[in-house]
Amino acid sequence: MKLYAQADFDANRREKRRQIRRALILALPFFAMAIAAFVLRIELLCIAGFVIAGSILIFLYDLRIKPALRYGRYLAEAHSGLTRQTVGALVRIGSDPVYQDGVNFHEVILNIYEDMAEEGERRFLLDVNKEIPQDWIGQDVVVTSHGSFLLDVAPVEKKA
């Protein structure tokens, strides 16, 4: 089950542009007010316009634009580096989000030992926007990852 496709990259690019446009549109009236006040030499109104516009831009950058930028950076990094495959039993999929590198993930625990010893557990991170079927828990799966980031998960096909 391939977790990412070109559509994910395109959706992230659209989201970044949409959030930047939204921030600029919301700050534009206050910039216009500040410029008009500057031309009319109304110092207090000019300062207030720039402060409000700057506050809007900083607030929306932190709240909306930065997460989209970090997610885009994660997508680019995870798909440009080395990948490896790991085979093991899918032990559990965490329900609580884990925040790492500016992106939210779910923990996926895979055990690579036949006897299911605790030392064989490996932790992978699954994007919160992606899902692995719950009925795969306890089955053997093949995981393709970049570092600890999951890129692909598939059940192991049994040989006759």
Descriptive report:
With 160 residues, the chain is of the alpha+beta class. Helix content is 45%, strand content 27%. The chain has 2 helices and 6 strands, in the order H-H-E-E-E-E-E-E. It has helices at residues 6-39, 43-80; strands spanning 84-93, 98-100, 103-111, 121-127, 140-146, 149-155. Strands 1, 2, 3, 4, 5 and 6 form a 6-stranded antiparallel β-sheet that branches. Helix 1 (6-39) runs antiparallel to helix 2 (43-80). The longest helix is centred in the middle third of the chain and has 38 residues, at 43-80. The radius of gyration is 23 Å and the shape is elongated. The model has no long low-confidence stretch (mean pLDDT 93).
Offer a concise description of the structure:
This protein has 2 helices and 6 strands. It has helices at 6-39, 43-80, and strands spanning 84-93, 98-100, 103-111, 121-127, 140-146, 149-155.
Order of helices and strands: HHEEEEEE
From the spread of the alpha carbons, the general shape counts as elongated
Count the E strands.
6
| Share of helix, binned | 40-55%
List the helices and strands and how they pair.
Elements: H1 6-39, H2 43-80, E1 84-93, E2 98-100, E3 103-111, E4 121-127, E5 140-146, E6 149-155
Antiparallel strand pairs: 1-3, 1-5, 2-3, 3-4, 5-6
Provide key terms for this protein.
alpha+beta, single chain, 6-stranded antiparallel sheet, elongated, 160 residues
